[in-house]
Design a protein that fits this description.
homodimer; 354 residues; alpha/beta; Aspartate Aminotransferase, domain 2; 14 strands; 18% strand
Chain lengths: 354, 354
């Protein structure tokens, strides 16, 4: 039976990925040198498409890294000298805070648990403030308006927005943040192993200001990433397959249109939350509709979550488990590759499981 | 026309890679969770096959990272507190030394230029000594005997062997080194984006001894990599496609047999060196046969190297350029995927180009 993955990443491949991977093999893309003109064209095209799809302003640049874990580490090394603030509402925002502590940063954590960010609780004093667009572990979303509200108060800090499992399905105003990042195995439906780091000139200035005062890395110092990106290259031999296929998927998404992707995401998430709320065994983990994630929907289960996961698996639908041990939850991804039809089918089947 | 890549990495894909990538798509491998049992089995199998193919002793462990550049950085962070020694005979061994300096390590460089390592020149005092099995930039190889000779003198230092473009074609005694590493886009013929780090208990002990005294990283500290590897997982979402296909290629290479791979490598390299030495326009860059690389053959060119590269390209053979600007050289990879027949054809064609 054909399986469909609704796991929150790695997830179902974007529906064109298989063909792009094969085309890459046919065209020897995975054999070309990462210093060749052929690769530079792939790199340039990929960045240009990403900027087009997301309407990224000209003062932002794009670097390719290997994972979001790596980008957390590079942000800490390159943009923070002494102190950072982390708005925590789940395991991944907490992990970024933990990483800062491991780097001997005086990192403060502001815990919002299952709640919306409260702007008054966030001080305007940190070198860098870390926010999360979409917490993949808890299914908490931060609205565009909330991010703008925070920016209007926090003028001096570099604001870093974790967009894993958010981009391109959950829109926000890019000018409200100085850097944002994501990995490609979530909404973009690619094989894992590629992280994307977008940063503006404020980040570059900060990096240059602190780079003599601490160790800012080697091949992936921001300066090195930036210098090489101006030549459409990476310092190291990168995941060429990832960059090539990402570029192709970006083109496909431009053809679909970002507005259509966002509208379909909203439709499908409403459908699923309705299904969950009308289900006698299931209950939305996040009650406040303002912060219910559109892309990672988390539900508490009356019985063992494995029961629902296994029953759906038998029908060909692969759901995610709750994040962390002992969570009696299911997590369901709503990514651009999941069509409305498939989501309706998912909801119909989920209704029958009791 | 079908092209064949003789570039020293990324290079021609191993001849089974296309089918393995496609099989991975068919079996949803790139959608499964990296925390699932399915992934753990892939991880465990991959490590077990690598240990079998290379006869890696039981006191060595394997970690998956994103590139050799990253492994250099992790070695410096995790295994060196204050000082290291680097035997330099090309651009890549020099880069490792540069990385150590960037990390404020008191790193000494021992330059051997185009020469063999001279054991008497290498002191026995460093915390870590960096050697290179095969310098991809210059085509200099280090023999198994030379590594053993160095080990017999250097008892206390951790010996780190760079095996990029060497493993599995150039054999050495693993017990002579404490850690070695490589990336998969060279001899293994995989798409780029995966680095493999092998380390023994001496490395782990050293890491635990120094980890309180410095910043040893976050998700990829050796301790974290090691803890997760014992559960057949990586700390971050890894390049699952890379690990899956690598495991399949390892199985294929075990079926061919490591002895056959090494024998064919030797035969093909002899053929190519003969062709170069009998060519009126070409000349081996490395004259001393003891250190002529078996896997990356570098030749000086009488005329512009582009002339030879372009002429061969018209015939479907993609050669590498000299490494670094202004080098009037060609570099030709001799990897396991290049058959004897294809190498004979390459040599025949090369002979005709003048």
């Amino acid at each position: 039976m054909k399986k469909i993955f609704f796991t929150p990443g790695p997830s179902e491949l974007f529906f064109t990925v298989e063909e792009h991977i094969k085309e890459g093999i046919r065209n020897n893309i995975y054999s070309i040198s990462h210093r060749s003109n052929e690769f530079k064209i792939i790199y340039e095209e990929c960045v240009s498409r990403l900027k087009d799809l997301l309407s990224i302003p000209n003062n932002y640049n794009v670097g390719f890294l290997s994972s979001t874990n790596e980008i957390w580490e590079r942000i800490i090394q390159n943009l923070i000298l002494e102190d950072s603030g982390h708005c925590v509402n789940g395991s991944f925002s907490k992990k970024f805070h933990d990483f800062a502590l491991l780097n001997k940063i005086n990192a403060k954590s502001y815990s919002f648990d299952m709640k919306e960010y409260i702007v008054d609780d966030i001080p305007n004093t940190h070198e860098l403030l870390a926010l999360t667009l979409n917490e993949t572990s808890t299914g908490i979303m931060c609205s565009r308006e909330k991010i703008s509200e925070i920016r209007s108060k926090i003028k001096n800090s570099i604001i870093a927005l974790d967009c894993v499992s958010g981009i391109p399905s959950i829109p926000f105003n890019i000018n409200d943040v100085d850097t944002f990042y994501f990995s490609v195995q979530k909404c973009f439906g690619l094989p894992s192993g590629l992280g994307v780091w977008v940063y503006n000139e404020k980040c570059l200035e900060k990096h240059l200001k602190i780079k003599e005062k601490k160790i800012t890395g080697t091949y992936h110092s921001l300066q090195r990433i930036h210098e090489m990106s101006l030549k459409y290259q990476t310092p190291e031999t990168p995941n060429v397959l990832g960059i090539y296929v990402f570029s192709k998927v970006l083109k496909d998404m431009m053809n679909i249109g970002i507005d259509n992707i966002v509208r379909d995401t909203n439709y499908k998430s409403s459908l699923l939350y309705n299904t969950i709320n009308n289900h006698s065994d299931l209950d939305s983990f996040i009650k406040n509709k303002e912060i219910q994630s559109k892309t990672v929907i988390v539900a508490n289960c009356k019985n063992e979550s494995d029961m629902y996961i296994n029953a759906m698996k038998e029908r060909g639908f692969i759901l995610g488990k709750g994040y962390g041990s002992g969570k009696n939850q299911i997590r369901i991804a709503n990514f651009p590759t999941h069509s409305k039809e498939v989501f309706e089918l998912l909801c119909d089947e989920l209704t029958l499981i009791k």
